[in-house]
Amino acid sequence: SIVAVPGGAGANKANGKASKTEWATVVLLVNLGDDDVSVTLRYVGTVVKAARNRPASITQVVHADDSLRLADVLRARLGVLEGNGMLVVESAGAGGVFPLVLGETYNVKNRRFGQTAGAQTDGQLIHAGQTRLLLGLREDGLYRGALSFYNPGGATAKAELVYRSAAGAVLSRIKISVNAGQLLQRGARDGNALKESYSGLFSLERNV
Question: How far is the first Cα of the chain from the last one, in angstroms, to the nearest whole number?
Answer without folding.
Answer: 25
